[in-house]
Write a structure and sequence with these properties.
Radius of gyration of chain A: 17 Å
Distance between the termini of chain A: 36 Å
CATH class of one domain in chain C: Alpha Beta
Largest interface: B-C, 122 and 122 residues
Helix content of chain A: 10-25%
Order of helices and strands of chain A: EHEEHEEHEEHHEHEHH
CATH class of chain A: Alpha Beta
Radius of gyration of chain C: 28 Å
Structural class of chain C: alpha/beta
Number of strands of chain A: 9
Oligomer: heterotrimer
Number of helices of chain A: 8
CATH topology of one domain in chain C: Dimethylsulfoxide Reductase, domain 2
Largest sheet of chain C: 7 strands, mixed
Chains: A alpha+beta (about 240), B mainly alpha (about 240), C alpha/beta (about 900)
Number of helices of chain C: 28
Strand order of the largest sheet of chain A: 8-1-9
Distance between the termini of chain C: 70 Å
CATH architecture of one domain in chain C: 3-Layer(aba) Sandwich
Number of strands of chain C: 33
Number of domains of chain A: 1
Structural class of chain A: alpha+beta
Chain lengths: ~240, ~240, ~900
């Protein structure tokens, strides 16, 4: 595996892989299997998430609907986190992943501030199995599984087959076909980050509806408990 | 901190022998319930030395069945039943049973010619009592070596023992003793746990620098002063 | 460093020296001299080492999906779905992904415990499995010998076994029958027993299997397939495929916006308990507008279209609108859509059946599929397909005397028992209990009026000896006398099959690691107890347990099944986890395909299978077309052909149920207005529900799941809340005739204005601290053993309030289901002094509820008043007897 610091973006570059994910929002049922699988795969501690599923209700009774939006690091082709990292701890891999070298991270949180998607978090000092804490972490597109020809854990377990993963540059791959034919959208394209997680929109929903801040007292009280626990830090990627 | 006594009364070999006995006793008290054989010793020849060490065997006087019964209930409450002060290194270092610390400790035993065999289900090699007994065994080996004037071998065992105590017990066991003593209701166990804590700190202070000792103190004091979570959420059921 | 005792080092050494001198007197440690070199094993986990993959069947809930456990250095580190499993096709839900945490949980009971002190005091002594099984064997033998001496087989029924989940594939029945006892009680009446009793007399099996992948229309009554229900994982996968890939329409009727309702194309919120009215009205529309399948009704049911039209006449959409609040216009439209879209199916689970008269509601919904001819069609409403396994010989015969606990005489149609009634029956002396055993059960938490169970379990006169096989200290297990812990589902042997796909399969549970710390699985415990009760074989118990171990027992199940035998029998299952392998799962379509990429199709039209000449040899065709051989129905003749038909006495779908009529219930589906429908305007109906990351009660200790869902505020409609002056997040009191609880409110547009809904997933007892420390008020810093993740990173501080104490007991007199969604409550802002989590309930009132619900039973006065239309001799209904009708 080549560790290319600031490897050039590979989307559309022939001969290079560009791993990408398509999330079909018509299929997500909010079962949270992906969240649990990811936590189990990486011993992700409580209070931080590599992937989450946002939940939102819209409408008024009896015309109420529920929407789910899985969220994770977009492994952007123009990642602001990589650009801003003072120690080059976070770097761009030539196959498209944005990855982290824990030993270089100084937990300055610049990358967290730079990321428009709230995808990164600081690991707490205490974890169950893995002995890495206090540094910044995020989704890795399960690089260790993908390089062994396996699917990422969240994709493998997704009940609705809402998450689809593959090489965007391969014209025969499902992600390539879906991005080309389904009119997919990405999050916050105006930020210029060129995210590589593509969403297939469900009917009757605009993207920012699924991404809104928590409104109900129940959700807010969870958010407040979380902030209290983290002493007011707002830098997290959570379900809240 | 009391003065280190002069060792004129105990030569090195005798001291090792005594330490072996001490650790064996502490290990035995924590590893399993008191049985008649141990009770007899506790009430008999060990009564006076125990008292000098701060453990009053008076609470073990009386009808044998009642005493053993009460002690067994306390043992279960302290070390066995869910919600007790789990005596396994794995639980303290990872929060789960039988994890890497158990493997490490089992390797220690194997490298030194011992195997762990559980008597009850649910016993694992990283039980603090077993680990204390192991320290005692290493002391025994050292004592034997000294008695046979194999000074180099003795030094080597001493070094190994020191490493085991620091690496496998140092960062959690004294603190665990303190916590378990705080919730123990039976005076015998309370006192034995307090004694164990004292003994362990004594060992550690002879093995590491003052700075490292401070670090270990901090490690042993880890854990919130007040549990922020309500333990009831963990109460699964019907499984 | 502490100075607890002012002792000199010399003091220690004297102690040590004395101990050493009396060497050996204190007894040995667990350390023994190593007898042989441990064979070169590497003890430290080295990452990168390939993990061992062991197939198993999940049991975090009851869907029984196939999984693969990844074992590294002898430890389970990850669980994933079994890609060869036709049911879940390689996927596990959130619960399945988290299940491995059960294994190493430090709160797991790792050794048998014997009670010391009073019940529930939390004092235990550790004993060995050997001692524990001996104690249990002695207790059981006492009952058996007493029964023999008195010559009274009824005494055997003093041995009672209650389970919540029993996936032992026959082990519990074998054991209890070997004891000569019939007193086995399941949990099914708090689950979906009325659904089963709505279906079984009609077409045979107790559940439907909808071909979601190929359907075009799903009418969902009160089920929450995308989160729960049978079979959440496999069905949710297929439902999504149907909706997205096959453009099926999903219409849901549910008073609450579940995830399924929230993702439906149309959601309607009826008043609780009125689904039946809606279904009957739809049937009425379909029949009167001639949208029904005439041939199917005439050939395959025991009614005629004319009869149905006459019966359904009063159930107009306008009538249903009055009852349910759903617009008649919509009911009519949906009925027409359902009837004219092919293929179509209904699905229902707990919503309609967990009411008094829930069996009628299920029967009405079921009927919709029958009259539209969607039965056993591709994309339609199909029979469930499962596989069975033989029980090893010799098989013990059932006990000689029926048990009133297992088959309450007042509920002859409740073929899945009425477990809610157990404590009341025992308290009233209807049954005597000597040994009460329970497995995978937590009624002190999960049952309505749960406080009554706590009272019963604490009563040493009524339950002299209580044994739990649970490995977690639940609210129920902490009240036991003896705990003989089972292992977790990842460490035991069980046979498995579930109708989770239209292609049947056989699976197993097997130890993916050796049972942790030498704990012993339940099956082994049963073998040992049986042998100890009857060591010389004279009591006739031991011979039914002639297995050396669990594996041998499994072989007895599997090694001779035709087809599987040729593929390798039990060894095949050990290696692959599931049989047969129908094909590979196509990653893009999730269809099971053969090596050419073509879908391996399941069979449809099972009832149309024709009987062979051999089958027909010696059979008689009755005038009505039923084919009988050796006194048993084997099929029916339709249009000159001999078909297998359905599992009923006439081999047709018996929409008209003689069995119902016998006891004065209406043989055709009807709608009975419930008392809750007549609640006062400012009252609400309390419903409870399940969520996608939790099940029953055992998932509460899995940290990933608890993080996702740990509190259960009460859902309330904004208009209702505003009228009561309640704002989102307020503390509220929910009061039923049993008492009240104090919880928080969640104001949401996703709930009927007359309903308040509380999830049952959280709120483990506020008053029960972890078993042993509860009477110690000191805060132990590391009381739970320090999973550093849990110790430091738990960020939530709300664990919810459980609703069950205020839910009233009220059962369906037909199917026996507890009316979970019938409790009428008042909701108001909390009163001064109320604290979050307060619960105050009355046992006396619960006893009154029991008496009240008996009036609905077929011998009761309310039953008679509610069924005046049934043409039966009311003064000469069959007399209640234990075991009648079963």
């Amino acid at each position: 595996m080549a560790i290319g610091i600031q490897a050039p973006p590979s989307a559309g570059v022939p001969g290079k892989k560009r791993w990408a994910m398509v999330i079909d929002l018509r299929r997500c049922i909010g079962c949270m299997a992906c969240v649990a699988a990811c936590k189990a795969e990486y011993d992700v501690p409580l209070g931080v998430w590599r992937t989450t599923v946002k939940v939102k209700d819209t409408g008024t009774f009896p015309n109420t609907k529920r929407h789910f939006m899985p969220r994770l690091c977009n492994h952007c082709d123009n990642p602001p986190c990589v650009r801003n990292c003072p120690t080059e701890a976070t770097y761009k891999h030539e196959e498209g992943y944005v990855l982290q070298r824990y030993e270089r991270c100084i937990a300055c949180r610049t990358c967290i501030a730079a990321c428009p998607y709230n995808a990164r978090h600081v690991l707490p000092g205490n974890r169950t199995r893995v002995k890495v804490g206090g540094v910044v972490d995020k989704c890795t597109f399960c690089e260790h599984r993908v390089s062994n020809d396996q699917l990422p854990a969240c994709v493998q377990t997704c009940l609705g087959r809402s998450r689809i993963f593959g090489d965007l540059n391969d014209p025969k791959s499902e992600v390539h076909r879906l991005v080309a034919t389904m009119g997919t959208v990405t999050l916050k394209p105006e930020k210029g980050t060129r995210p590589q997680v593509y969403y297939i929109k469900p009917d009757r929903l605009s993207m920012n509806q699924g991404d809104a801040a928590p409104v109900s007292a129940a959700a807010r009280s969870d958010a407040e408990a979380f902030y209290r626990h983290n002493k007011g830090s707002r830098f997290f990627g959570g379900v809240l | 901190m009391t003065e280190c006594p002069t060792l004129t009364q105990f030569d090195a070999g005798e001291e090792c022998g005594a330490q072996a006995g001490l650790f064996a006793l502490l290990g035995r008290c924590l590893e399993a319930e008191i049985d008649e054989r141990l009770l007899t010793a506790l009430r008999g020849e060990l009564r006076e030395p125990l008292a000098e060490a701060g453990v009053d065997s008076a609470c073990l006087d009386g009808d044998i069945d009642r005493v053993l019964g009460d002690a067994a209930v306390e043992f279960a409450a302290l070390f066995v039943v869910p919600g007790a002060a789990s005596p396994y290194a794995s639980t303290f270092q990872t929060g789960a049973l039988f994890q890497e610390p158990a493997d490490r400790v089992a390797r220690w035993y194997a490298d030194n010619g011992f195997a762990f065999r559980n008597a009850h289900s649910g016993e694992f090699p990283d039980h603090v009592g077993t680990m204390l007994a192991f320290v005692g065994k290493l002391y025994e080996v050292e004592a034997t070596a000294l008695a046979e004037s194999r000074v180099e071998a003795a030094r080597e065992v001493r070094e190994r023992r020191g490493r085991f105590v620091v690496e496998e017990l140092g960062s959690w066991a004294p603190g665990w003793c303190r916590v378990a003593a705080a919730v123990a209701e039976h005076p015998f166990y309370r006192q034995v746990l307090a004694l164990t804590e004292r003994v362990l700190w004594e060992e550690l202070s002879n093995l590491v620098s003052a700075r490292r000792l401070r670090e270990l103190s901090a490690a042993n004091a880890r854990g919130p002063a007040r549990m922020p979570l309500n333990p009831d959420y963990r109460k699964a059921s019907g499984l | 460093m502490t100075k607890h005792f002012n002792v000199s080092r010399r003091g220690f050494l004297k102690l040590g020296g004395t101990t050493a001198a009396i060497a050996g007197a204190v007894g040995g440690s667990r350390l023994h001299a190593m007898e042989q070199k441990l064979g070169g094993e590497d003890f430290s986990p080295v990452t990168g080492k390939p993990r061992q993959a062991v197939p198993y069947t999940c049991m975090v809930c009851n869907i029984e999906d196939g999984g693969i456990a990844y074992v590294e250095d002898g430890r389970v580190v990850k669980l994933e779905g079994n890609p060869d499993h036709p049911g879940n096709r390689g996927k596990l839900c959130a619960k399945g992904n988290s299940g491995f945490q059960h294994v190493y949980d430090p709160d797991r009971i790792m050794t048998p415990l014997m009670r010391a002190g009073a019940r529930g005091e939390g004092k235990w002594k550790r004993i060995s499995y050997d001692e524990a099984t001996s104690i249990l064997a002695t207790k059981l033998r006492e009952v058996i010998q007493r029964s023999e001496k008195a010559g009274d087989p009824a005494i055997r029924n003093e041995i009672v076994f209650k389970w919540g989940r029993n996936r032992t594939g026959g082990a519990v029945h074998r054991f209890m029958h070997a004891m000569g006892s019939n007193a086995m009680v399941n949990h099914t009446n708090i689950c979906e027993s009325s659904k089963k009793v709505g279906l079984e007399p009609s077409w045979g099996p107790d559940i439907e299997s909808v071909d979601y992948t190929n359907t075009k229309y799903v009418l969902n009554f009160g089920s929450n397939v995308m989160e729960t229900a049978y079979f959440h994982n496999p069905n949710a996968q297929r439902l999504v495929d149907g909706m997205v890939a096959n453009k099926a329409k999903l219409v849901t009727f549910d008073p609450r916006l579940s995830n399924t309702a929230g993702r439906s194309d149309e959601w309607f919120a009826p008043f609780p308990g009125t689904d039946g009215a809606i279904a009957l009205a739809m049937a009425q529309v379909i029949m009167t507008e001639k949208l029904y399948d005439d041939a199917f009704i005439r050939n395959w049911t025991n009614v005629t279209p004319e009869r149905l039209i006459a019966h359904l006449a009063p159930y107009t959409p306008e009538f249903a609108e009055k009852e349910s609040g759903i617009a008649a216009r919509d009911i009519r439209r949906i009925a027409r859509e359902f009837a004219t879209t092919k293929p179509a199916a209904t699905f229902s689970y707990r919503g309609p059946c967990k009411h008094v008269y829930g069996s009628y509601q299920e029967a009405a919904i079921h009927m919709l599929n029958v009259i539209t001819g969607n039965v056993e069609k591709r994309g339609g409403y199909c029979l469930p397909r499962g596989m069975g396994w033989p029980q090893p010989e010799p098989k013990p015969p059932a006990g000689k005397v029926p048990s009133v606990l297992a088959a309450p005489p007042l509920y002859p149609l409740a073929s899945h028992a009425v477990s809610t009634h157990m404590p009341y029956m025992i308290m009233k002396g209807d049954a005597k209990v000597s040994v009460y055993m329970h497995y995978y059960d937590n009624p002190a938490y999960a049952y309505p009026s749960s406080h009554v169970w706590i009272d019963l379990l604490k009563n040493e006169k009524l339950l002299p000896f209580v044994v739990s096989f649970s490995c977690y200290m639940s609210e129920t297990t902490e009240l036991a006398d003896l705990i003989i812990p089972d292992v977790t589902y990842l460490e035991r042997h069980d046979p498995e099959s579930m109708p989770s796909d239209l292609r049947p399969w056989l699976g197993i549970r097997q130890p993916v690691i050796k049972p942790l710390g030498n704990t012993q699985e339940f099956r082994e415990t049963l073998i040992q107890v049986a042998h100890k009760i009857d060591s010389d074989g004279t009591l006739g118990v031991k011979k039914y347990f002639a297995f050396k171990n669990s594996e041998e027992w499994m072989r007895a199940h599997f090694d001779n099944i035709p087809g599987l035998k040729e593929d390798g029998g039990y060894d095949y299952l050990k290696k692959n986890g599931v049989w047969p392998k129908y094909g590979k799962v196509d990653p893009e379509t999730a269809k099971i395909v053969d090596k050419n990429g073509n879908e391996v199709q399941p069979e449809f039209g099972l009832y149309l299978k024709e009987l062979s000449a051999t089958d027909m040899a010696g059979a008689e065709v009755k005038p009505d077309g039923t084919i009988v051989k050796n006194g048993k129905t084997i099929g029916c003749q339709v249009n000159g052909r001999n078909h297998v038909g359905f599992g009923t006495p006439s081999a047709r779908i018996e929409l008209y149920k003689e069995s119902y009529k016998k006891y004065g219930f209406n043989p055709l589906p009807v709608y009975k207005r419930l008392p809750s429908r007549d609640k006062k305007a400012d009252e609400l109906v309390l419903t409870t529900y399940k969520v996608n990351v939790h099940t029953q009660s055992r998932t509460a200790s899995l940290k990933y799941l608890a993080e996702l869902y740990h509190k259960n505020p009460a859902w309330m409609n904004p208009k209702t809340a505003a009228a009561k002056g309640i704002a989102d997040g307020d503390l509220i009191r929910v009061t039923s005739p049993l008492g009240y609880l104090v919880t928080k409110v969640h104001v949401t547009e996703g709930i009927h204005p007359d309903v308040v809904a509380v999830s049952t997933a959280c709120g483990h007892s506020a008053y029960g601290r972890l078993a042993q420390l509860k009477h110690r008020d000191k805060d132990a810093e590391w009381a739970l053993g320090g999973d550093p993740d849990i110790t430091h990173n738990v960020w939530w501080d709300d664990k919810g309030v459980h609703p069950n104490p205020i839910v009233r007991l009220a059962v369906d007199p037909i199917g026996g289901s507890q009316g979970w969604y019938d409790t009428v409550v008042t909701v108001s802002k909390a009163q001064p002094g109320d604290k979050y989590g307060d619960v105050k309930v009355s046992v006396e009132q619960s006893m009154k509820d029991y008496e009240e619900t008996l009036r609905y039973a077929y011998t009761g006065d309310i039953h008679r008043a509610n069924h005046k239309e049934v043409d039966v001799d009311w003064d000469h209904l069959p007399k209640p007897q234990a075991g009648a009708g079963h």
